[in-house]
Amino acid sequence: MDQIGFLESRQAVLSRRREIVADLLDLLPRGCLVHEPRELVPFETDAFVSYRRLPLAVALPETTQQVAAVMKYCHRYGVPVVPRGAGTSLSGGAIPQEDAVVIGLSKMSRILEVDFANRAAVVQAGVTNLAISEAVSADGYFYAPDPSSQLACTIGGNIGMNSGGAHCLKYGVTTNNLLGVKLVLIDGTIVELGGKALDAGGLDLLGVVCGGEGQLGIVTEATVRLVAKPEGARPVLFGFDSSEEAGACVADVIGAGIIPVAIEFMDKPAIEICEAFAHAGYPMDVEALLIVEVEGSEAEMEAMLASIIEIAGRHGVKVVKESQSATEAALIWKGRKSAFGATGRIADYICMDGTVPLGQLPAVLRGTAEIVEKYGLRVANVFHAGDGNMHPLILFNANDPEDAARAEAAGNEILKLCVDVGGCLTGEHGVGIEKRDLMRHQYGDADLAQQMAVRAAFDPQWLLNPSKVFPLEGRPA
Amino acid sequence: MTPIHEPLSEEAASRLVQVAALSKSPFVIRGGGTRSLHGLPDGADVLSARGLNGIVAYNPAEMTMTARAGTPLEVVEAALAEKRQMLAFEPNDLRGVLGTSGIPTIGGVFATNASGPRRLVAGAARDSLLGVRFVNGRGEVVKAGGRVMKNVTGLDLVKLLAGSHGSLAFLTEVTFRLLPVPETAVTVIISDLNDAEAAAAMATAMSMPVEVSGAAHLPESVRSRFAGGALPQGAVTALRLEGLAASVAVRSEKLIAAMTRFGAVSHLEAEGTRRLWREIRDGAPYADGTPRPLWRVSVAPVAGQQLVAALRLETGVDAFYDWQGGLVWLRMEADPEAALLRRYIKAVGGGHATLLRARPEVLAAMQAFQPQAETITALQARVKASFDPAGLFISPMVG
Question: Which UniProt keywords apply (chain A) (predicted)?
C-alpha cells in the first residue's frame, strides 16, 4: 500500500527535543505540557486512524497569550506546530509528526459571552459545537452548523475545516455562520478579524482562515452567529426502490424551488447498519431512504411536505413515514448521526467526502457501486444529498494490508469521479493528509501555486500543520 | 483620456497583464464603474471587464449560474426571473447615491461584496459565491472554488476575492448559488418608534421563529422619501416576511401580535414590499444629487442607533438603518467627520465605515475604507503581494 507521506522531520528540532521541552515547561503553567512518550499516545492520531505519529510535545494552553508565547517560541526556533481541537478530523488534519509541537485547545472551553440582541456568541476555540447550542437553547436559539461529531468536535476545529453538517442546506456551513475570530499568527502576533458587525472591513481574511486547516494561524476565540430556533421541525422518511430514483428525486425537489432544512440519503447497507444500531424505525424493504426535514409553522411544513410527496410520487416512492412525536424525530436523527460509529462496529471503513452537482447524483452513485465492486469491496452510502455532499463508506479489513490498499485505491477513484463530473474532493471533512495527494486532480499548477502563495503570506516558513493539504512535491522552496 | 483596456477573453486579459507586468504599468480594475468610490489615480490605465460578457451556464435545477465577470447584472437577473430564481443577497444599485452612470456588472457585484437587506439572514454576496476564475498580477489564469454548494478543497480564495475591490486580481468569471423567488412577501410596519425603541422591536422580531428576512428602521427625517411618501406618519420600523403565502399569513399574524406592544402596526402587501425594500437596498433617500458626505457603516445590530445618537450630540447627521440596525446609511451635513465617526464606531464595539460619497477634493484627500490595525494592514499587504507581487492592481482597499 502506498503510504501517505509526511515531511521529513527536522533533525535540528529532534536533536534539541530536551531543551525544547524544558523551554516550553518554562513558558506554560503546570499541567499544560504533555511530553512523556506514554502520555503523548492519545495525541498520535485523530479520526483518520490509519496514520499515527507521536508529536514532540503537546501544549495545552489556558489563554490566548500562552498560545502566542508557544507559537512565538516555535517560530523562533523553527519548530513545526500542529493545532488540535478534539481530534475528530476524518482526513488526518490533526495528526502530528515527530518534530512538531501540538497546540491543543481543550483547556480553552468557555463560552465567554452570549448576546441575544445581536444574535451572537463569543466562545473560546475549545468549546464543543453542541455546547453552544445547548447554552442558548432555553432562550430559543441554536448554532446552525451541526457536524455528526458535534458532541465532541470543537468550534476551533470546525473553523479550521469549515465544517458542515446535515442542516447546512438551509443555514450554510461554518463560514456562513462565523462573524469573527481571535487568531494567533505563527510569529505569536494576535489579531482580531471581524466581530459582531455583519461585514468586516478590509480583505476577507476571516473567509480564508475559515477552512484554512490550521495552516494560517490558530484560532483561540470565535464570534458565531446564533439563529432563532424554528417553531417546529419534522423529519420525514421516503423509501425508494433504487438509489437512482432517490437521487433523481433530490434533484427534482431542489429544482422545484423547495429547500428543506436537510435532505439526507441512505442506501440499503447504510439503512441496515443504522437501524440495527439505533432502532430508528427505518423501513427495511427499500433500497434507498431519504430523510427530509422541513421546519416552520404547521402550515408551512404541511405545504412543503405536500409538494415533496407529490414529487416523490413521480419517482415511485414506496414508503412515506412522518415522525409522529419528538421522540420519533430524535430517533430518526440519532440513526443518521450514528452512521459512522455504527459502521465502525461491523467493519473498518474509510469515509469519502466528495461533492457533486445535484444532477450527477444518480450517475455518481452508479459509478461508486461499480468502482467498489471492481475492487471486491462493500460500500454503504449515507450523505447530505441536498447539497450533493456524498459520503460513501468503503468497508474493509484493516488487519489485511492488501484490503486496506484496495479500499484506499477505490476511495481515490471515487473522488476523481466526483471531480470529473464537476464536483470536488471534499465538501466538509477537509483535505488533511488524506486527500492531499489528489489535489492536482482538481487544481492546475497555477491554482495550487496561488493557494500556496496565500498560505505563505501567513506562514512564510511553512511551520503550521506543514504536512497537510498541499502535495509535498512542488511546494515553493 | 485614461487608456481603457477591454480584453475580450480571459487569454487576452492574461497576455495584457503579463505585458504590463514587464513594464510595471499599473491598472485600475473596473466592471461597469457604477460603484467607483474614487477617481482614477494618475498614470494608471483602466482594465475593464466589460468585454467579458455572457452567461456561461445556468442550471436552474442545481440553483447555480456561471457568468463572465462583465455580464450586466440586469442580464443575469432577467435570466433568473424567467425561472423564478434570484440572487439571495439582493445586490444593491449605487448609481443613485453615487451619481454614476453605466451598467452594473455581476463581477462588480462580487468584487465589492454588494449586499442588500436580505444579507441579514441569507448572507452577503461572498456567501453566495461558489467559484471564480481570475487573472492574477503575474498574468496567470487561476481558478478557485467550483460550482457545488459545499467545497472545502484547499484554501477558500473565493472569499478573499469577494469584496477585494480589484486589489488582488482581475475577475474573469464567477459561479454563484441562487434561491427560488419567494411566492409572496409582506412588510409589517410599526409606527413612530424612536431609534432605541426600534432597536428593541427589531431584536424581538429577530428572536421569534417567524423568519424575518429584512429589518429596517426609517426615522421620521427620511420616511417621506420612501415609497413616494406613502408610508404611514412618523418613523417607520419595517419587518419583511417572505415565503409561501399560507406560511407568510400565519407568520405575519404572529409577528403583528408581538409588535403591537411596541406601537401602532400596519402592513404593506407584496408590491409595496418590493418597492420599499428596493429603496432601502439602494439608499434611496440619499439619491439626492448632492455631494453631501455619505457613509455606509457596519456595526453590531444594536450598536447602530447608539452610534448615531452619540454622533448627533456633536455634528449634523441624518441616518436610516438596515440589517436590524447593523447597517447605518449615514449622511453628514458638511464635513465627512471621519475621525469622529471612527472614534465612535470603536466606542460602540467596533465595525467599519466606508465613505461612499463626498466632494471630489475631500474624497481625494482621504481614505474611503476603514483603516485596519497595523498587524492586519501588514497581513493584508502580504496577501496582496501573493496575488499581485508587483503591485499592478491599484485599489484603495489595500494600500
Answer: FAD, Flavoprotein, Oxidoreductase
Cβ-defined contact of B142 to A204 (cutoff 8 Å): no
Inspect the interface and report whether the beta carbons of B157 and A299 lie closer than 8 Å: no
CB within 8 Å: B61 and A422: no
For chain B, give the mean pLDDT. 95
Query: Do residue B153 and residue A117 have CB atoms under 8 angstroms apart?
Result: no
Q: pLDDT tens, A263-300?
A: 999 999 999 999 999 999 999 999 999 999 999 888 88
B27 to chain A, closest Cα gap in Å:
19
**Contact predicate A393/A350, CB 8 Å:** yes
A:B CB pairs within 8 Å: 286
Cβ B259 vs Cβ B205: under 8 Å? yes
- State whether B153 and A425 contact (CB < 8 Å): yes
Measured between beta carbons, which residues in chain B are less than 8 angstroms from residue A384? 150
ipTM of the complex: 0.97
Q: CATH 3.30.70.2190 occupies which residues in chain A?
A: 233-339
Whether B203 has its CB under 8 Å from any CB of chain A: the answer is: yes
Across the interface, of B157, B303, B375, the residue whose CB is closest to A450 is B157
pLDDT at A199 over 60: yes
pLDDT score of A131? 98
A233-339 placed in CATH 3.30.70.2190: yes
Asked if pLDDT for residue A141 goes beyond 50, the answer is yes
Which pLDDT band holds residue B42 (cuts at 50, 70, 90)?
confident
* Domains observed in chain B: 1-181+369-399 (3.30.465.10), 184-281 (3.30.70.2190), 288-367 (3.30.70.340)
CATH 3.30.465.10 in chain A, residue ranges: 111-228
pTM: 0.96
Please judge whether B379 and A457 are an interchain contact, meaning their C-beta atoms are less than 8 angstroms apart. yes
